[in-house]
Every structure is written in structure tokens, then in C-alpha cells.
Design a protein that fits this description.
The chain is about 40% helix and about 25% strand. With about 300 residues, it is α+β, with helices and mostly antiparallel strands. It has a 7-stranded mixed β-sheet, sandwiched between helices. A 5-stranded mixed β-sheet has the order 11-10-12-14-13, with helices on both faces. A hairpin with a 4-residue loop joins β6 and β7. α2 packs antiparallel against α3 and α6 runs parallel beside α7. The longest helix has 21 residues. The radius of gyration is 19 Å and the shape is globular.
Length: about 300
């Protein structure tokens, strides 16, 4: 009887996986294809880290040939199918091309470059599509674990072939919260440390792995109960924000408002925890607004 149940469960799972793949939005399929190609570039580069050419864009801000090659792979894949779409990518590939297009792909080819360069296995590819100002497709791909997070607006969020939801915890004291350290030049570090002190006292714990896009995917999957950071760029947030919304969560700036994508401030969590985080962190918003150095890890 047990074997029969296992067999039926496996058949249903395989059927669901095939059905989900068959019904995947064409633009999401293109994003997945691009993310996997970038992941292959990253995995090849990870085998010989000591051989990579690394340059510095600013204080504690590194870029490698892998970042650029992965971004090229993504942009080439997208433009092969959608040549009239615009691109907003961290390393500037195809910047200004199709500038008036209604479709804008927002790309981080390697979120967590510092981790990658040190062999620390916490980095990802992030690709989102914005149509007329609204994020409609999102992919976050972890090439180390082969974890593929996907979302299409109105169709839910998925990890590989499994539907995901944000956590159900209702009290911040029980929550595991992710964050980041945004200030490369040390500006406003004391303010951010005050925020961390507040959150350390009010939560079960904080984590800072160093790849914001993957952190947001973890909120969508319920691994984290919430996340906050300031000084982020659109490519750090775009795909992950859609994952969270489609998984039943909320995303906003430190005041809980919707201007986070190009404002740099972000809170993400399930609805109850989101409200509690906004209450604690919103008093710091004005001190930080427009002052944080964007993070490009």
C-alpha cells in the first residue's frame, strides 16, 4: 500500500512539473533560459577563481570577467527572442538600446560577486521583466544549488517545480530576518547599526549572507520571515520583489510605501511581519534616504 501511494505521489509530482513547464509564460521561459546560461558561465568561472581578472569599480566594489560574460549571455539570449526590448543591467550591457521600449529587462548577472570571488557559495543570477512600470516576470537562479525561483504576475511563485509561500509567523520575536551592510564608504554606518540593534532585540536572529536577490527569494520561500536593506539597486530587488508578492508577501520601502524599486530602501516580509518591521524601521527612513551608497556585491 505504501509503495502504491509513493508511486502515485511521484506520478502526480511529475505531471504537475510537466504541466507547470508547459504553461510557463513565454517571456518567463526566455528569462529561465538566460539565467541557466549565465549560471553555466558562473560555474565554469568558479572552478578557477585564482585565474580570473578582477577590477574595482569603487570602494569594496568588485567586478570580474565572469560578471561581464554572464551578463552578455543573458542579454544575447533575451535579444535573440525580443530584439526590441530595453535592458537595465548592472554592468551596463546594451545600455540605451531601445530606450523607449515598453518592456525593460532588469538584470543582475551575478549578485554576490564578493562571495563568488572568495569561493563562498552564496550568489545568484537575477532577471526581471518590467512592462509599463510593473514587474511581470521574475527569475532568481542559484547555480550552486541549482535552485530556480520563478514568478509570473498573477500566477504564483515557484522553487523548481514546487509552489512556495511566505512564512506564517505572526510575531517578530519568533522571526529570522535577513539584511545587508550597505555602506562601502562608512557613511551613515552608525544609523544602520542602530537599526540592527533594534532588530536584534526584537527578533529571533539576523542573517547577512551578502546576496540580496537570493535573500528575497528566501523570503518568498519562507526560509526568512523578512528582509530589509537600504542602498540597493533595481537589479538587486526587481525579480525578488515579484517572487515575494506572488508568494503572498508584501514589499515596500522603510515607510511601507511602493517607491522602493528606484528608491533603494526595502522591507519585505509576510503581511503581519511587514507591518511590525515598518513600525520599527520607518523612523530611520529620512536619515537614510538618498544617502546610502548603492550596493553592488
Amino acid at each position: 500500500m505504501r509503495d502504491w501511494k509513493f508511486f502515485m505521489h511521484r506520478r502526480l509530482r511529475l505531471h504537475w512539473s510537466a504541466t507547470a513547464q508547459a504553461t510557463m509564460h513565454p517571456m518567463l521561459m526566455t528569462a529561465v533560459k538566460a539565467a541557466r546560461r549565465a549560471g553555466n558561465v558562473i560555474n565554469r568561472g568558479a572552478r578557477d577563481l585564482d585565474m580570473l581578472t578582477v577590477t574595482t569599480k569603487g570602494p569594496k566594489d568588485f567586478v570580474s570577467e565572469v560578471d561581464r560574460a554572464a551578463e552578455t549571455a543573458i542579454v544575447d539570449t533575451i535579444h535573440a527572442t525580443y530584439p526590441n526590448h530595453a535592458i537595465l543591467a548592472e554592468e551596463g550591457t546594451a545600455h540605451g538600446v531601445n530606450a523607449d521600449a515598453e518592456h525593460l529587462w532588469i538584470i543582475d548577472p551575478l549578485d554576490g560577486t564578493t562571495n563568488f570571488l572568495h569561493g563562498f557559495p552564496q550568489y545568484c543570477v537575477s532577471i526581471a521583466l518590467q512592462h509599463k512600470g510593473q514587474i511581470t516576470q521574475g527569475v532568481v537562479y542559484d547555480p550552486v544549488r541549482n535552485d530556480l525561483f520563478t514568478a509570473t504576475r498573477g500566477r504564483g511563485a515557484f522553487l523548481n517545480d514546487r509552489r512556495i509561500r511566505v512564512s506564517r509567523r505572526q510575531h517578530l520575536k519568533e522571526c529570522l530576518i535577513g539584511t545587508g551592510f550597505p555602506f562601502r564608504d562608512g557613511s551613515f554606518l552608525e544609523t544602520y547599526l542602530d537599526m540592527m540593534r533594534t532588530m536584534i532585540k526584537e527578533t529571533a536572529g539576523l542573517r547577512r549572507p551578502g546576496a540580496a536577490a537570493l535573500d528575497l527569494a528566501y523570503v518568498a520561500a519562507g526560509y526568512y520571515d523578512g528582509f530589509w536593506e537600504v542602498g540597493l539597486n533595481p537589479w538587486d530587488m526587481a525579480a525578488g520583489s515579484l517572487l515575494i508578492v506572488e508568494a503572498g508577501g508584501l514589499v515596500g520601502d522603510l515607510e511601507g510605501e511602493s517607491g522602493y524599486l528606484f528608491g533603494g530602501q526595502l522591507i519585505a516580509a509576510n503581511p503581519r511581519i511587514f507591518a511590525q518591521m515598518v513600525k520599527l524601521l520607518s523612523p530611520y527612513s529620512h536619515a537614510l534616504k538618498g544617502k546610502a551608497t548603492p550596493v553592488e556585491e
